[in-house]
Each structure stands twice: as C-alpha cells, then as structure tokens.
Give the backbone structure.
Amino acid sequence: MDNKIKQIAIIGATASGKSSVAIEMAKSLDAIILSLDSLSIYKEIDIVSAKPTLEERAGIEHYGIDVIYPNEPFDVTIFADIYKECYQKASSNGQNLIIVGGTSFYLKVLLDGISPLPSIDEGIKAEVVSAMGRAGDIYKMLQDIDPSYMSRISSSDSYRIEKALTIYLATKLPPSAYFEKYPARPIITEPLAIYDIPTDRAILRERIVQRTKEMLKRGLIDEVAYLEKRYGRSPNSMKAIGIKETLDYLDGLYSLRELEEKIVINTARLAKRQGTFNRSQFGDVSQYITVQK
C-alpha cells in the first residue's frame, strides 16, 4: 500500500440513496466502491439486499458484493481482508476509493481495528461446536471466568459467546486478557472524510415503502423460497429483514399485504437504529450530502 489514494466514506440509513450517490461520485473521482452492506456480501441474495444491479453499477468496479454464499461463515475479519484487497487494487491502478453502505459497524471496525484471532485447530473447533449445544451453561461459565467482558454480551448473542469460548479454549486466557495482550490496530490509518446522508423520517419511510413494493414486484417471494430450498433457515443470512418476514408469509402467518407492512415496519426500525449508531459512533461528521427527494 505505497501509493496514497483518496478515500471517502458515505453512511446513512437504509433507502437513503447512498449507492446511487456513491456511483455518481465514483465516476467523477475515478474511484472503485467498497460496499458496507451485511447482505450484499452474499451471492444469490439479490432482491432482498437491494444491491445495485450490474446495470446500476454503471461499469464502476465494486468490492464487498457477491463474495460468499449464504451458508458460508462470515465475520468482520473477512471484511477487513476485502478492504485491504480493494485498497491495494485502487492504489495499484492510481484510482480512489469510496466506502459506502448502511452497515457502518464495518466502517467502525476499519477505523478502530480488530485483534488478531488465535490459531484454532480442528480439536478446538469440534469442542466449541459441541459446547454451544449448551449455550446457556457456556454463557454462565464465561460470566464466571470473565465477568467484565461478558457484561457487554447478551445471553442471546450466540456469535459473540462462541467467539469468547473459542478464544478461551484456544489460549486459556479470559477474552479480556487476550484482547489486552493483543490489542486492536486500526486498518484505515490515513484521515478519512465521512459523509452522512440525513433524510427526513417521513421521506425515508416513503422510500422504504416504495422499495418494498419494488422488491415484491421483482420477485422477492420467489427469491426467498429458492434460498430456503437451497440453504435452509439456519444460516444467519436467512434471519435478515425481508427474508424472515417472507418465510413467515410462506408459513401462512401473513397475508401478502401484511408481509409488505411487516417488511416496511422492520426496515424503518432498522433505519432508526442505523441513525442512532451513526450519531453515536461518528458524531463529529460535519459533511453532508443532500439527495434529491
């Protein structure tokens, strides 16, 4: 990563118009785009993720889209590797980089860094899988071992409980002691301009309504039925907004109208959470982009 490049990030709630803004900016800045989206990273989850189509990408190279299949494991270390690859590509080509999306937790990880995970052998993996069948007992055990660390983890957060257990079994260290020994290091080390797209709540809700209608029109139900048939319901990706409501519809719990209403309501709640997170984590953002209403 020798050649310095210009990097900017565009954050904002779902349906605020980030992707189209990023594509237009990429054209003028000769940039490639890194998607900050927890669903667009999956292959075959196309409609429900609202990922930009090939036509909408307008020839701009995108990273972070269609990387893994819905039943493959994903964590932020994979995203960090995607960022490094994306940065290297832009640097080698003399291009710039635009980071855009609604899962701004990933951006926070790039700025704050992540600790390297210990090497995990097959024996440890098998032990963790077996132990997680007793997730409640494991949670209590970890609370006794490392109360300060586990106080930040919900008893229902199986991903982080499994991660804490893995670290403990692999290193014999409480997670807090491990992370103190191996502190996180920022991945983005140069100054980063962060742009926010503020949107009036009523306007944003209308956009969510229209996007939901368009998703249904494009074949959302058929896409989710295909995903369920191929991958089942257990992968984390199958619990995303738009997928879980459609699965309930397929189970006969909702009418088509109720399905649409549920997706709109839950997407609006997600947008509110995204706004809260962005304000709490990127509160010093003073640069805004106005999107046409």
